[in-house]
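To whoever is covering the structure queue this week,

Two jobs came back overnight. Logging them here so there's a record in the thread.

Job A:
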Amino acid sequence: RIEAAHRRFLLVLATGTGKTRVAAALVELLQRKERIQRVLFLADRRELVKQALGAFKDHVPGAPRAWIEGGSFDNDAQVQFATYPGMMSLYQKLSPGYFDLIIADESHRSIYSRYRAIFDHFDAIKLGLTATPTDFLDHNTFELFDCADGNPTFYYGYDEAVRDKHLVPY
Protein backbone atom coordinates (compact mmCIF):
# COMPACT_ATOMS: atom_id res chain seq x y z
CA ARG A 1 0.00 0.00 0.00
CA ILE A 2 2.93 2.38 0.52
CA GLU A 3 4.10 1.69 -3.03
CA ALA A 4 0.57 2.59 -4.19
CA ALA A 5 0.95 6.00 -2.44
CA HIS A 6 -1.47 5.29 0.40
CA ARG A 7 -0.72 7.46 3.43
CA ARG A 8 -2.80 5.92 6.25
CA PHE A 9 -2.62 2.41 7.63
CA LEU A 10 -4.26 0.57 10.50
CA LEU A 11 -2.63 -2.49 12.01
CA VAL A 12 -4.87 -4.46 14.34
CA LEU A 13 -3.00 -7.12 16.28
CA ALA A 14 -4.11 -9.01 19.37
CA THR A 15 -2.61 -7.80 22.64
CA GLY A 16 0.81 -9.32 23.18
CA THR A 17 1.55 -10.19 19.55
CA GLY A 18 4.06 -7.43 18.87
CA LYS A 19 2.51 -4.21 17.58
CA THR A 20 5.51 -2.16 18.68
CA ARG A 21 7.94 -4.72 17.24
CA VAL A 22 6.15 -4.58 13.88
CA ALA A 23 6.30 -0.76 13.98
CA ALA A 24 10.05 -0.87 14.71
CA ALA A 25 10.61 -3.29 11.82
CA LEU A 26 8.61 -1.05 9.50
CA VAL A 27 10.61 2.01 10.54
CA GLU A 28 13.88 0.15 9.99
CA LEU A 29 12.76 -1.03 6.55
CA LEU A 30 11.47 2.37 5.41
CA GLN A 31 14.62 4.11 6.64
CA ARG A 32 16.86 1.57 4.91
CA LYS A 33 14.89 2.07 1.68
CA GLU A 34 15.21 5.85 2.19
CA ARG A 35 11.43 6.32 2.20
CA ILE A 36 11.43 8.10 5.58
CA GLN A 37 13.87 9.99 7.77
CA ARG A 38 12.02 11.30 10.83
CA VAL A 39 9.43 9.43 12.85
CA LEU A 40 7.07 10.43 15.66
CA PHE A 41 5.81 7.65 17.93
CA LEU A 42 2.79 8.79 19.96
CA ALA A 43 1.34 6.98 22.95
CA ASP A 44 -1.22 7.99 25.54
CA ARG A 45 0.78 6.94 28.61
CA ARG A 46 4.38 7.41 29.71
CA GLU A 47 4.75 3.67 30.33
CA LEU A 48 3.88 2.92 26.70
CA VAL A 49 6.45 5.49 25.53
CA LYS A 50 9.05 3.87 27.77
CA GLN A 51 8.26 0.40 26.36
CA ALA A 52 8.41 1.68 22.78
CA LEU A 53 11.76 3.37 23.41
CA GLY A 54 13.11 0.04 24.67
CA ALA A 55 11.78 -1.87 21.68
CA PHE A 56 13.27 0.60 19.22
CA LYS A 57 16.59 0.54 21.08
CA ASP A 58 16.65 -3.26 20.71
CA HIS A 59 15.37 -3.53 17.14
CA VAL A 60 16.50 -0.30 15.45
CA PRO A 61 19.73 0.42 17.33
CA GLY A 62 21.20 2.63 14.60
CA ALA A 63 18.42 5.23 14.69
CA PRO A 64 19.01 8.09 17.16
CA ARG A 65 16.02 8.34 19.52
CA ALA A 66 14.65 10.96 21.89
CA TRP A 67 11.73 11.37 24.28
CA ILE A 68 9.82 14.61 23.81
CA GLU A 69 8.71 15.72 27.23
CA GLY A 70 8.16 19.08 28.87
CA GLY A 71 8.79 20.98 25.65
CA SER A 72 12.24 19.44 25.12
CA PHE A 73 13.13 18.45 21.59
CA ASP A 74 16.20 16.79 20.06
CA ASN A 75 16.44 17.90 16.44
CA ASP A 76 19.10 15.24 15.73
CA ALA A 77 16.93 12.27 16.71
CA GLN A 78 15.45 10.29 13.84
CA VAL A 79 12.76 8.74 16.03
CA GLN A 80 10.95 10.96 18.51
CA PHE A 81 8.69 9.48 21.20
CA ALA A 82 6.00 11.42 23.03
CA THR A 83 2.78 11.20 24.93
CA TYR A 84 -0.06 13.18 23.40
CA PRO A 85 0.06 15.79 26.21
CA GLY A 86 3.86 16.03 25.84
CA MET A 87 3.52 16.79 22.14
CA MET A 88 0.70 19.32 22.51
CA SER A 89 3.02 22.17 23.54
CA LEU A 90 5.45 21.53 20.70
CA TYR A 91 3.77 20.37 17.52
CA GLN A 92 2.80 23.83 16.24
CA LYS A 93 6.46 24.90 16.37
CA LEU A 94 7.33 22.24 13.79
CA SER A 95 6.55 22.47 10.10
CA PRO A 96 3.83 20.16 8.73
CA GLY A 97 6.50 18.30 6.76
CA TYR A 98 8.85 17.71 9.70
CA PHE A 99 7.90 14.06 10.28
CA ASP A 100 7.73 11.48 7.50
CA LEU A 101 5.89 8.87 9.58
CA ILE A 102 3.64 9.19 12.61
CA ILE A 103 2.82 6.07 14.59
CA ALA A 104 -0.19 6.28 16.90
CA ASP A 105 -0.02 3.52 19.50
CA GLU A 106 -3.36 2.45 20.97
CA SER A 107 -4.89 4.51 18.18
CA HIS A 108 -8.45 3.71 19.23
CA ARG A 109 -8.12 5.99 22.28
CA SER A 110 -6.36 9.35 22.41
CA ILE A 111 -6.12 10.34 18.76
CA TYR A 112 -9.56 11.98 18.91
CA SER A 113 -10.76 15.30 20.33
CA ARG A 114 -8.02 17.81 21.11
CA TYR A 115 -5.10 15.47 20.44
CA ARG A 116 -6.23 14.92 16.87
CA ALA A 117 -4.73 18.34 16.09
CA ILE A 118 -1.25 16.78 16.40
CA PHE A 119 -2.18 14.07 13.97
CA ASP A 120 -3.76 16.47 11.49
CA HIS A 121 -0.93 19.04 11.67
CA PHE A 122 1.68 16.83 10.03
CA ASP A 123 1.68 15.79 6.38
CA ALA A 124 3.15 12.36 7.04
CA ILE A 125 2.39 8.72 6.55
CA LYS A 126 0.17 7.72 9.49
CA LEU A 127 0.18 4.30 11.08
CA GLY A 128 -2.35 3.32 13.72
CA LEU A 129 -1.66 0.43 16.08
CA THR A 130 -4.39 -1.14 18.18
CA ALA A 131 -5.84 -4.40 19.40
CA THR A 132 -9.34 -2.95 19.70
CA PRO A 133 -10.39 -0.59 16.90
CA THR A 134 -13.63 1.32 17.37
CA ASP A 135 -16.32 2.24 14.89
CA PHE A 136 -18.26 4.82 16.90
CA LEU A 137 -19.49 7.86 15.02
CA ASP A 138 -17.13 10.17 16.92
CA HIS A 139 -14.30 7.64 17.43
CA ASN A 140 -14.04 5.63 14.23
CA THR A 141 -10.56 4.14 14.01
CA PHE A 142 -11.25 2.61 10.61
CA GLU A 143 -12.32 5.90 9.05
CA LEU A 144 -9.39 7.79 10.58
CA PHE A 145 -6.97 5.44 8.82
CA ASP A 146 -8.86 5.28 5.51
CA CYS A 147 -10.32 1.83 6.12
CA ALA A 148 -13.88 2.88 5.34
CA ASP A 149 -15.01 -0.69 4.76
CA GLY A 150 -14.30 -1.57 8.41
CA ASN A 151 -11.36 -3.75 7.49
CA PRO A 152 -7.95 -2.72 8.83
CA THR A 153 -4.91 -2.65 6.58
CA PHE A 154 -3.59 -5.67 8.48
CA TYR A 155 -5.34 -7.90 11.02
CA TYR A 156 -3.88 -10.56 13.30
CA GLY A 157 -6.49 -11.55 15.85
CA TYR A 158 -6.59 -13.49 19.07
CA ASP A 159 -7.79 -16.78 17.52
CA GLU A 160 -5.05 -16.71 14.91
CA ALA A 161 -2.40 -15.85 17.54
CA VAL A 162 -3.55 -18.79 19.70
CA ARG A 163 -3.54 -21.12 16.70
CA ASP A 164 0.01 -19.99 15.84
CA LYS A 165 1.04 -20.47 19.50
CA HIS A 166 2.00 -16.83 20.00
CA LEU A 167 -0.67 -16.62 22.73
CA VAL A 168 -2.26 -19.21 24.97
CA PRO A 169 -6.05 -19.50 25.30
CA TYR A 170 -7.46 -17.82 28.37
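Job B:
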Amino acid sequence: AREFRKGSQRQKIRTKMVIALTNKSPEEVSQMGPYAEALMQRFRIELEHKWSSHTRSDYMELLHGRFKPSTDKEKKIINAMSGILETISKKKECICPRIAIAATKVALSAGSSNVEDILNNISFVHGLAGMEDTYETMRRDMMISEENSKIQEAYGKIEESEDDDHTDGVERISQLNEIIKNVGKMNVHDEVYNQKDSVVEHAKDLVNRIASSL
Protein backbone atom coordinates (compact mmCIF):
# COMPACT_ATOMS: atom_id res chain seq x y z
CA ALA A 1 0.00 0.00 0.00
CA ARG A 2 3.09 2.23 0.36
CA GLU A 3 1.74 3.86 3.46
CA PHE A 4 1.80 3.54 7.23
CA ARG A 5 -1.59 3.09 8.82
CA LYS A 6 -2.68 3.53 12.43
CA GLY A 7 -6.43 3.39 12.72
CA SER A 8 -7.78 6.13 10.47
CA GLN A 9 -4.40 7.84 10.23
CA ARG A 10 -2.46 7.26 7.03
CA GLN A 11 1.03 8.42 6.12
CA LYS A 12 2.46 7.97 2.65
CA ILE A 13 6.03 6.68 2.48
CA ARG A 14 8.62 7.31 -0.20
CA THR A 15 10.71 4.21 0.51
CA LYS A 16 11.46 2.32 -2.70
CA MET A 17 13.15 -0.72 -1.25
CA VAL A 18 13.89 -2.39 2.08
CA ILE A 19 16.93 -4.65 2.38
CA ALA A 20 17.28 -6.81 5.49
CA LEU A 21 20.22 -8.98 6.52
CA THR A 22 20.12 -11.68 9.17
CA ASN A 23 22.01 -14.80 10.17
CA LYS A 24 18.69 -16.61 10.63
CA SER A 25 16.77 -18.38 7.89
CA PRO A 26 13.35 -17.02 6.83
CA GLU A 27 11.79 -20.06 8.48
CA GLU A 28 13.51 -19.30 11.80
CA VAL A 29 12.29 -15.70 11.71
CA SER A 30 8.76 -16.77 10.82
CA GLN A 31 8.64 -19.01 13.90
CA MET A 32 8.95 -15.90 16.11
CA GLY A 33 5.22 -15.25 15.70
CA PRO A 34 2.47 -14.24 13.22
CA TYR A 35 3.81 -10.68 12.81
CA ALA A 36 7.27 -11.99 11.98
CA GLU A 37 5.77 -14.48 9.54
CA ALA A 38 3.76 -11.71 7.84
CA LEU A 39 6.90 -9.59 7.65
CA MET A 40 8.89 -12.33 5.95
CA GLN A 41 6.13 -12.83 3.37
CA ARG A 42 6.71 -9.25 2.23
CA PHE A 43 10.29 -9.94 1.20
CA ARG A 44 9.84 -11.16 -2.36
CA ILE A 45 13.51 -11.80 -3.11
CA GLU A 46 15.68 -13.92 -0.84
CA LEU A 47 19.38 -14.54 -1.34
CA GLU A 48 21.21 -17.06 0.83
CA HIS A 49 24.93 -16.41 1.05
CA LYS A 50 27.03 -19.05 2.77
CA TRP A 51 30.26 -20.97 2.39
CA SER A 52 30.15 -24.05 0.21
CA SER A 53 32.72 -25.72 2.47
CA HIS A 54 34.25 -25.28 5.92
CA THR A 55 37.76 -26.64 5.46
CA ARG A 56 41.03 -25.65 7.09
CA SER A 57 42.01 -23.66 4.00
CA ASP A 58 38.66 -21.78 4.05
CA TYR A 59 39.22 -20.66 7.63
CA MET A 60 42.90 -19.96 6.94
CA GLU A 61 42.01 -17.57 4.11
CA LEU A 62 39.39 -15.83 6.26
CA LEU A 63 41.62 -15.42 9.33
CA HIS A 64 44.73 -14.34 7.42
CA GLY A 65 42.67 -11.71 5.60
CA ARG A 66 41.06 -10.47 8.83
CA PHE A 67 44.03 -10.48 11.21
CA LYS A 68 47.04 -10.26 8.86
CA PRO A 69 49.44 -12.10 11.23
CA SER A 70 52.96 -10.68 11.25
CA THR A 71 54.76 -12.80 13.87
CA ASP A 72 55.49 -16.53 13.94
CA LYS A 73 53.35 -16.92 17.08
CA GLU A 74 50.35 -15.23 15.45
CA LYS A 75 50.75 -17.43 12.38
CA LYS A 76 50.91 -20.55 14.56
CA ILE A 77 47.77 -19.51 16.45
CA ILE A 78 45.85 -18.89 13.23
CA ASN A 79 47.09 -22.16 11.77
CA ALA A 80 45.94 -24.01 14.90
CA MET A 81 42.61 -22.15 14.93
CA SER A 82 41.96 -23.08 11.30
CA GLY A 83 42.44 -26.76 12.14
CA ILE A 84 40.30 -26.52 15.27
CA LEU A 85 37.44 -24.78 13.44
CA GLU A 86 37.54 -27.40 10.68
CA THR A 87 37.41 -30.18 13.28
CA ILE A 88 34.46 -28.61 15.10
CA SER A 89 32.64 -28.10 11.79
CA LYS A 90 33.10 -31.78 10.93
CA LYS A 91 32.15 -33.18 14.32
CA LYS A 92 29.50 -30.81 15.66
CA GLU A 93 28.22 -28.01 13.47
CA CYS A 94 29.66 -25.62 10.91
CA ILE A 95 31.27 -22.58 12.50
CA CYS A 96 30.29 -19.39 10.68
CA PRO A 97 32.87 -16.70 9.81
CA ARG A 98 31.56 -14.37 12.56
CA ILE A 99 32.15 -16.95 15.32
CA ALA A 100 35.47 -17.99 13.74
CA ILE A 101 36.72 -14.39 13.88
CA ALA A 102 35.47 -13.88 17.45
CA ALA A 103 37.15 -17.08 18.66
CA THR A 104 40.42 -16.26 16.89
CA LYS A 105 40.44 -12.78 18.45
CA VAL A 106 40.24 -14.47 21.87
CA ALA A 107 43.02 -16.92 20.98
CA LEU A 108 45.29 -14.15 19.72
CA SER A 109 44.64 -12.05 22.84
CA ALA A 110 45.54 -15.01 25.07
CA GLY A 111 48.78 -15.35 23.10
CA SER A 112 49.35 -19.11 23.40
CA SER A 113 49.87 -21.25 20.30
CA ASN A 114 49.43 -24.45 22.31
CA VAL A 115 46.37 -26.33 21.06
CA GLU A 116 45.25 -27.28 24.58
CA ASP A 117 45.36 -23.64 25.71
CA ILE A 118 43.53 -22.43 22.61
CA LEU A 119 40.73 -24.95 23.09
CA ASN A 120 40.31 -23.92 26.72
CA ASN A 121 40.25 -20.23 25.84
CA ILE A 122 37.76 -20.39 22.96
CA SER A 123 35.36 -22.65 24.90
CA PHE A 124 34.01 -19.44 26.49
CA VAL A 125 33.20 -17.80 23.16
CA HIS A 126 29.48 -17.40 22.51
CA GLY A 127 28.58 -19.93 19.84
CA LEU A 128 31.23 -22.41 20.93
CA ALA A 129 30.00 -22.90 24.48
CA GLY A 130 28.33 -26.25 25.10
CA MET A 131 30.74 -28.14 22.87
CA GLU A 132 32.76 -29.44 25.79
CA ASP A 133 31.69 -32.98 25.00
CA THR A 134 33.58 -32.80 21.71
CA TYR A 135 36.74 -31.18 23.08
CA GLU A 136 38.46 -34.41 24.10
CA THR A 137 37.96 -35.81 20.61
CA MET A 138 39.11 -32.51 19.12
CA ARG A 139 42.21 -32.43 21.32
CA ARG A 140 43.13 -35.93 20.18
CA ASP A 141 42.52 -35.10 16.52
CA MET A 142 44.56 -31.91 16.75
CA MET A 143 47.44 -33.68 18.47
CA ILE A 144 47.43 -36.35 15.76
CA SER A 145 47.37 -33.60 13.12
CA GLU A 146 50.37 -31.89 14.75
CA GLU A 147 52.27 -35.18 14.95
CA ASN A 148 51.51 -35.88 11.30
CA SER A 149 52.69 -32.40 10.28
CA LYS A 150 56.01 -32.88 12.07
CA ILE A 151 56.51 -36.29 10.46
CA GLN A 152 55.68 -34.88 7.01
CA GLU A 153 58.11 -32.02 7.60
CA ALA A 154 60.85 -34.53 8.47
CA TYR A 155 60.02 -36.57 5.37
CA GLY A 156 60.32 -33.41 3.25
CA LYS A 157 63.82 -32.76 4.64
CA ILE A 158 64.85 -36.33 3.85
CA GLU A 159 63.62 -35.91 0.27
CA GLU A 160 65.60 -32.67 -0.04
CA SER A 161 68.71 -34.44 1.23
CA GLU A 162 68.20 -37.24 -1.26
CA ASP A 163 68.13 -34.75 -4.14
CA ASP A 164 71.02 -32.67 -2.78
CA ASP A 165 74.09 -33.05 -5.00
CA HIS A 166 76.03 -30.13 -3.54
CA THR A 167 76.25 -30.70 0.23
CA ASP A 168 79.11 -32.83 1.52
CA GLY A 169 78.11 -36.45 2.19
CA VAL A 170 79.34 -36.42 5.78
CA GLU A 171 77.28 -33.32 6.52
CA ARG A 172 74.19 -34.87 4.93
CA ILE A 173 74.62 -37.98 7.08
CA SER A 174 74.89 -35.77 10.16
CA GLN A 175 71.68 -33.96 9.23
CA LEU A 176 69.86 -37.23 8.56
CA ASN A 177 71.01 -38.73 11.86
CA GLU A 178 69.58 -35.68 13.62
CA ILE A 179 66.24 -36.28 11.89
CA ILE A 180 66.34 -39.97 12.87
CA LYS A 181 67.01 -38.98 16.47
CA ASN A 182 64.26 -36.34 16.66
CA VAL A 183 61.57 -38.40 14.91
CA GLY A 184 62.57 -41.57 16.74
CA LYS A 185 61.98 -40.06 20.18
CA MET A 186 58.56 -38.62 19.26
CA ASN A 187 55.63 -40.00 21.25
CA VAL A 188 52.81 -40.42 18.76
CA HIS A 189 49.34 -41.89 18.57
CA ASP A 190 48.75 -45.27 16.95
CA GLU A 191 47.27 -43.62 13.85
CA VAL A 192 50.62 -42.10 12.85
CA TYR A 193 53.02 -44.64 14.36
CA ASN A 194 53.57 -46.45 11.05
CA GLN A 195 54.28 -43.13 9.29
CA LYS A 196 56.84 -42.26 11.97
CA ASP A 197 58.50 -45.67 11.61
CA SER A 198 58.52 -45.37 7.81
CA VAL A 199 60.24 -41.94 7.93
CA VAL A 200 62.93 -43.23 10.27
CA GLU A 201 63.59 -46.27 8.06
CA HIS A 202 63.69 -44.08 4.95
CA ALA A 203 66.29 -41.81 6.60
CA LYS A 204 68.39 -44.78 7.73
CA ASP A 205 68.32 -46.26 4.24
CA LEU A 206 69.50 -42.95 2.77
CA VAL A 207 72.30 -42.73 5.33
CA ASN A 208 73.51 -46.19 4.30
CA ARG A 209 73.42 -45.26 0.62
CA ILE A 210 75.33 -42.02 1.14
CA ALA A 211 77.89 -43.78 3.38
CA SER A 212 78.49 -46.47 0.77
CA SER A 213 79.28 -43.83 -1.85
CA LEU A 214 81.91 -42.02 0.25
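Note for Job B: The longest helix spans residues 132-163.

Please reply-all if you pick these up so we don't duplicate work.
Q.
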